[in-house]
Amino acid sequence: MNENIPDLARIANSLRADVLRMVHVGGDGHPGPALSVADIVATLYFSVLRVDPERPDWPQRDRLILSKGHACPVVYAALVRLGFMPPETLGTLRCLHSMLQGHPDMLKTPGIDMTTGSLGNGLSIGLGMALAGRYSGRDYAVHVIAGDGEMQEGIIWEAVMAAAHHGAGRLTLWIDNNGWQSGGRVAQIAGLEPIGPKLAAFDWHVQEIDGHDHEAILDAAQAAAAIADRPSAIVAHTVKGKGVPFIENDNSWHKRVPTSDELERALVALGEA
Amino acid sequence: MVTFKGTREAFSVAMLELAEQDSRYVLVLADSLAAMRAARFAERYPERVFDVGIAEQNAVGVAAGLASCGLIPFVATYAGFITMRACEQVRTFCAYPGLNVKFVGANGGLFAGEREGVTHQFFEDLGIMRSIPCITIVTPSDPAQTRQATHAIAQVDGPCYLRIGSGREHDLFKADEPFELGKLRVLAEHGGGEDVALIATGLLLNRVQEAAERLATEGISATVAEVHTLRPLDREAIAAVARRTGAVVTIEDHNILGGLGSAVAEVIAEEGLAATLVRVGLQDVFPESGEAESLLDAYGMGITDVMAAARRAMKRARAH
Fold this sequence. Notes:
The complex is a heterodimer of chains A (273) and B (320).
Chain A: H1 5-26, H2 31-36, H3 38-48, E1 63-66, H4 72-82, H5 122-136, E2 142-147, H6 154-165, E3 171-177, E4 180-181, E5 184-185, H7 186-190, H8 195-201, E6 205-210, H9 214-225, E7 232-237, H10 260-269
Parallel strand pairs in A: 1-2, 2-3, 3-7, 6-7
Antiparallel strand pairs in A: 4-5
Helix pairs in contact in A: 1-3, 1-4, 1-10, 3-4, 3-9, 5-6
Chain B: H1 6-21, E1 25-29, H2 39-44, E2 49-51, H3 56-68, E3 72-78, H4 79-85, H5 87-95, E4 102-106, H6 110-113, H7 125-130, E5 136-138, H8 143-154, E6 160-163, E7 185-189, E8 196-201, H9 205-217, E9 222-226, E10 229-231, H10 235-245, E11 247-255, H11 260-270, E12 276-282, H12 292-298, H13 303-319
Parallel strand pairs in B: 1-2, 1-3, 3-4, 4-6, 5-6, 8-9, 8-11, 11-12
Antiparallel strand pairs in B: 5-10, 7-9
Helix pairs in contact in B: 1-8, 3-5, 9-13
């Protein structure tokens, strides 16, 4: 077992706690989708990505694009924890003149590699970054995190086809497959299953993992990095709202502000009280 | 003297010139290599061509990614597929983050879209791009100016839109005639040019020059001014011309809503100028297929339409 695993579990819950505090203080935001992707975000930022808080524009850095941009509080929390921004920034989510916009803004927030928020667009941009890396002779990796619901967007499949055609080997697509979208169950609104075989049919390297198992996330990241000649997808099975029992699989938390009482109970559940 | 077979080839030649100077210039295509006359570029710089197939949204997204990593991508395909199909990608992922992406839209207007019909005639592109903040917008009027304009936008650090045509444009300018980004250019002042200002943009400039000459034979003194840059708009020079003549006609191969006519109307109204305005362009209708020159004639952009508009603007000015 990787020695970082216990740490990653602790960090992920700490990021979850920060998300709920941020949304509570800021008065707006999307806790459910941020909690479901917290383990992937924690593992990537704290064990996988080559980034440097002192040099957010470092050309050789690995890139992370949060295509499901509404989950950004969890990335903001990770960036603060890494030292890209001071901790007090977290109290300003979605507030006027804040560095922390409602959806990621690469010009306002150090450490954000790409502006995102309108769904479906991250993969095309990630493909562009990967192609730029190859053209420029830089070996950085590009990670794109998408929600399962956003796989309904047409541009995603344009990018899926083009990435395979161009053999974009340093590109990894993480699908936070929590089964929910804003309006309800993905399966009921416009079902996508089987996502993995669909991507495999497009000639992607595909892995399916438990998106809350840090060791599985690390192993999948390493396996993806070893695939040099085609893009890689990791279908991560997750629970929306993971880590806080009364938020898990309750889609009213897609966008909802916790009361003081709810925040307190959530922090207890996360071991962060 | 260098001559080109139309604006598409002129753009392509400029791309080769840019690529020779700087390895950051790359081309993003949506199965538009042939349409954009880019075969020579692809032969010379195959590693600098990113063709994603018939998928314009993806093309613009890919360009955003390339630009975010320091390259200077030119996305070149049909104007409407960039400004309409990929509008959100242009706006949110290129313009909003201020990325250095250049958009080159072919078939701008009826003259360029001609026989293809409405699906390939793009007369909303300038209005759409004007409504998105921060995009430099240029509409050169001939092939030589297209080459110069391509070099000019390459020097801008930020998103730019270059509107070009089909390949059968008239040659109006000398090859080395400068293209001064953001500046109105006075081309003629017939008999002093104080009766009426003909302010034009794009590939029908030749018609405007002809209209001004014919007006001169009727004793009407017209100023011919070209506004080839819609953003940044040369508000001061437009206001000066409007102030001097008191009667303005705008001429563009575009819907009269949103493009040059709207931009000039904004200047006249906001500066509180005592000037009348008549907008020559597509009169807010859908056109049809047809031969290029006859299409412009049929849809209100004929030489006689420009002349009639000049007389109308002057008549209204006198009535004030």
